[in-house]
Design a protein that fits this description.
- It is a single chain.
- The protein is mainly alpha-helical.
- It is built from 6 helices and no strands.
- The protein is elongated, with a radius of gyration of 32 Å.
Length: about 200
């Protein structure tokens, strides 16, 4: 009976770990599904176009179009046909310029959506890290209490463990980061002021 109970414990632990992994995967998939459902039809269309623009075949099609356009205009006079865009091919330049503008707009629109998604991921990572830090601090606190209660363990002071068992205050961390960024800005402004003399000429 003891052997069967001992064998069942690892199986229960493996099943619990497997369920936890599945829950984490489902949570991530649900996050992406919610973000995908928020996309409008126009955004989906722009994203598909952006994916096509990033493929090598798009560059090949552009080069083929330009080559056919130039070759057609150069060969038409041989057949006594008026060129629709004689050199230096102003119409072709306008088409390429408009295509470049539309391509840049589509790519920037897709990048903005990905940037918002990445910002949400960063906030989620920050929340998870803070929660992990709080759990770690709580575990250290429990281990310290256990160490003090055990009679066979010397009750020696541990200053590092005492500091680590207190959870970090996110507000203080953000305030320290803001103070550090402000100090960096002040140092840069002081340095830029030192390299310019009274007449406005750079010294270095």
């Amino acid at each position: 009976m003891r052997e069967s109970s001992n064998l069942g414990s690892p199986m229960i632990a493996d099943s619990s770990e497997h369920n936890q992994i599945n829950q984490n995967i489902e949570a991530v998939l649900d996050f992406y599904a919610r973000e995908d459902s928020k996309m409008s039809f126009a955004q989906r269309l722009l994203e598909r176009i952006s994916c096509f623009i990033g493929k090598p075949i798009f560059l090949a099609l552009i080069l083929l179009f330009v080559a056919i356009w130039i070759a057609g205009n150069l060969l038409l006079p041989r057949y006594s046909v008026i060129q629709f865009d004689p050199p230096p091919f102003h119409f072709l330049q306008g088409i390429i310029g408009l295509s470049a503008l539309l391509t840049a707009t589509i790519v920037l629109s897709n990048q903005n959506r990905l940037a918002r998604l990445e910002e949400q991921r960063a906030h989620l990572d920050l929340k998870v890290n803070l929660l992990t830090e709080q759990k770690t601090a709580k575990m250290i606190d429990l281990l310290e209490e256990l160490r003090f209660d055990l009679p066979n363990v010397r009750n020696r002071p541990d200053s590092e463990a005492t500091e680590l068992k207190h959870a970090m205050n996110p507000g203080q961390v953000l305030a320290a980061l803001d103070e550090r960024s402000d100090m960096d800005v002040i140092q840069k402004s002081i340095f830029s002021a030192q390299v310019v003399d009274v007449d406005g000429h750079k010294l270095i």
